[in-house]
Amino acid sequence: MRNDPLRDAVRAMHDIRDRCVWTQGIDHRDLVPYLIEESAELVDAVETGTRADLREELGDVLWQVLFHAEIASRDIADPFDIDDVARGLTEKMVRRHPHVFAGETARTPEEVLVLWNAAKAAEKHERRSVLDGVSPHMPSLALAQKVLGKAAQVGVVPQKAESKIVDEADLGDALLNLVATARAHGLDAERALRERLRQLQDDVRGAEQSTAASDASDKLKE
Question: Which GO terms describe its molecular function (predicted)?
């Protein structure tokens, strides 16, 4: 029999759901905080981790998918399992890549995006707004960057904020302008802030270590 690690993981999830009393009490909503945490740790692994970190965190996110699918497979009213999830994903990716699977031609990333958006529009024909499907639970900067892109599709351009900031509305305008600038230059505002915060955290730790070393030195002199 051919070794199938992915199928082994599915079976392990099934057995854990059957036999682990903690796991048996978890539902989809209970899992949300863990999904957010694991996704954040995957981002950290991508941006600052090792290859081993990346492999591990991808596994942790995959486990969340398997967990949700296992819970869903036991739903009485509308069950589906990981095979249904994978089948639906494959069908969607085939539809959205007609230049790979259906004889269309796309020689540039821009042409690929046109085909992708056309396929997505056909799938989501019931949507009435470009904002339909945009999750309000995204981090604020990432949400701003997403909404700016959607706004541009319908010709909406936010007014430039004045440089003077006296209240939170002015600050919100200024932040939105910064995100718009990032988007115009093909930059990721959320990632840029995360990376700058990492630098700041390194500076804080460095200052703490310097202070501790100085205090230790002073004590030796006493």
Answer: ITP diphosphatase activity
